[in-house]
Design a protein that fits this description.
This protein is of the alpha/beta class. Helices cover 32% and strands 18% of the residues. It has one domain: Rossmann fold (3-Layer(aba) Sandwich). The protein contains 8 helices and 10 strands. Helix 1 (9-31) crosses helix 2 and helix 1 packs parallel to helix 8 (251-258). Mean pLDDT is 93; it is low at 247-260.
Length: 260
């Protein structure tokens, strides 16, 4: 695990997006194709903005998997993660080789089965993720299932998670936030060869501290990334403010380490 502390969310996104681009290019160079996972939410705004501005990625050789989606939420909703990825990513790059979005309007079990069959044949090169205010990874809220081998699963959203979604402005009221979602599982995320975890803002500071400094536990799901061999956290001064020790490397150094 590496931790990069930046001055602000914009710098965080710039470095995280460049790091992701370098890893995608490296996978294409080595394998002829890159399989990636994209997260959504406010934490990914600047990272995806940078990634979509990169000029040297052959997107026709990229296969994208979607991390999670609410069950029963139409794509027309402002909170739809399918809509988010179409507007903030897919419409800004040339067509991908393949795109696997999570459709929460379909039968959840059938949708999980469809995605599970697809990802089985696409080992993930690069996963872009974040951390929830409750320490969740994707929609794996605490206590998360660390044991399931299923790549995509149906999960229930705890109240702190639902409050975060409302607090970020995605929904008009807490009652509007769905209570279930389809999420990529912890084990499936952990299988990714490289993980880039973007976590801006002070409201995530407690979760960052718990997930980086406490022993790995399903009560702090994103803490599992401590033991991933190729995970880099990108923090800003606010999200890193409660860490006992500033663990950062410089952005230049980490970029050089993964540069093709």
């Amino acid at each position: 695990m590496k931790v990069i502390t930046t001055n602000n969310p914009i710098e965080l996104g710039r470095l995280a997006g460049k790091a992701a681009a370098a890893l995608i290019i490296k996978a294409i160079t080595q394998n002829g194709q890159a399989n990636i996972i994209l997260a959504t939410g406010a934490s990914q705004f600047e990272t995806l903005k940078q990634l979509t501005s990169e000029k040297d990625i052959d997107w026709s050789k990229v296969v994208m998997f979607h991390l999670d989606e609410y069950i029963g939420l139409p794509e027309s909703s402002n909170a739809s993660f399918r809509r988010y990825l179409k507007e903030r990513f897919l419409e800004k790059v040339t067509p991908l080789k393949a795109t696997y979005l999570v459709n929460g309007e379909r039968d959840p079990i059938a949708e999980c089965n469809r995605l599970n069959a697809a990802i089985e044949n696409h080992p993930i090169d690069v996963a872009l993720v974040g951390i929830g205010e409750n320490g969740h990874l994707a929609f794996n809220d605490p206590p998360a299932d660390f044991d399931t081998e299923e790549p995509y699963i149906v999960v229930s959203l705890e109240e702190l998670c639902r409050k975060q979604q409302f607090g970020e402005g995605w929904f008009k009221s807490i009652e509007d936030v769905p209570r279930q979602a389809i999420s990529m599982s912890i084990k499936q995320i952990f299988k990714s060869k490289n993980i880039i975890c973007s976590v801006p803002e002070g409201r995530k500071a407690k979760a960052v501290k718990d997930c980086l400094e406490l022993p790995v536990s399903n009560l702090f799901p994103a803490g599992i990334l401590q033991v991933h061999p190729n995970c880099t956290y990108f923090l800003d001064e606010s999200s890193a403010s409660l860490l006992s020790v500033q663990k950062g490397l410089t952005g230049t150094k980490i970029f050089n380490e993964i540069k093709v």
